[in-house]
Specification:
Mean pLDDT: 88
Number of helices: 9
Shape: globular
Number of strands: 0
Low-confidence stretches: 7-12
Order of helices and strands: HHHHHHHHH
Oligomer: single chain
CATH architecture of the largest domain: Orthogonal Bundle
Structural class: mainly alpha
CATH superfamily of the largest domain: Tetracycline Repressor, domain 2
Radius of gyration: 20 Å
């Protein structure tokens, strides 16, 4: 049996530099927007040379989509790790929403990158392949949430008259994203002006969600 060759130091260094670029770019894009960030700023934040950024990424659009792909992959993996396959459909949906909100709390830059992507037009040219990889992950996530709605309708935790599972799943995704985005942008203002507690607000939101969907077992 042939022995596997260990990666060279040069290869490892290149992969490490690619990861450093994506981490730095995610933070800078999220904080300042795509149009306000240069490869020079990204190189400085990643503590590498600017030519090395160009070595890995031909243009800013490709780098942005790589950031989106990594964030989407992280979100998908969180769902897989944290949603219990033995739970009823309604519990799985609530966990999915809370996991999504957890990304906003744990890594706000990745959350903001995902929000920015939703406002972008589909990519063409060289970046098209990356765009398609992102959409494959989106399809997996969509199938998860739609499947949880179907499961809940079948196991009685979700009302059977709630509507088409695909439409319901889309509305629930909009709810979770909207709540997280509102608190990310206006959270401090809401606390100061109206005395809201952010964690209590999130819990109330998910309680409302459960009551609106709950079937006999919910």
């Amino acid at each position: 049996m042939p022995t596997r060759r260990r990666p060279t130091v040069r290869f490892v260094a290149r992969e490490d530099s690619r990861d450093a670029i994506v981490v730095a770019a995610t933070r800078l894009f999220a904080e300042h927007g795509l149009e306000n960030i240069t490869f020079g700023q990204i190189a400085k934040a990643a503590k590498i040379s600017r030519p090395l950024v160009y070595f890995h990424f031909s243009d800013q659009r490709t780098l942005f989509l790589e950031c989106v792909f990594r964030a989407t992959q992280e979100l998908r993996d969180r769902f897989i790790r944290q949603i219990d396959p033995a739970d009823c459909g309604l519990d799985q949906l609530e966990t999915m929403g809370r996991v999504y909100f957890g990304l906003h709390e744990d890594n706000p830059a990745q959350f903001q990158i995902l929000a920015m992507y939703e406002a972008q037009t589909p990519a063409g040219g060289v970046a098209r392949a990356l765009y398609e990889r992102i959409e494959v992950l989106h399809a997996e996530i969509n199938e998860m949430k739609t499947g949880f709605v179907r499961r809940g309708m079948k196991d009685g935790s979700i009302r059977r008259d709630v509507g088409d599972p695909q439409v319901v799943g889309t509305c629930l995704w909009a709810f979770s994203h909207g709540l997280a985005q509102l608190l990310a942008v206006k959270g401090t203002h809401l606390c100061e002006c109206f005395g809201l507690d952010l964690r209590s607000t999130v819990s109330t939101g998910f309680a409302l969600l459960r009551r609106s969907l709950a079937g006999k077992r919910g």
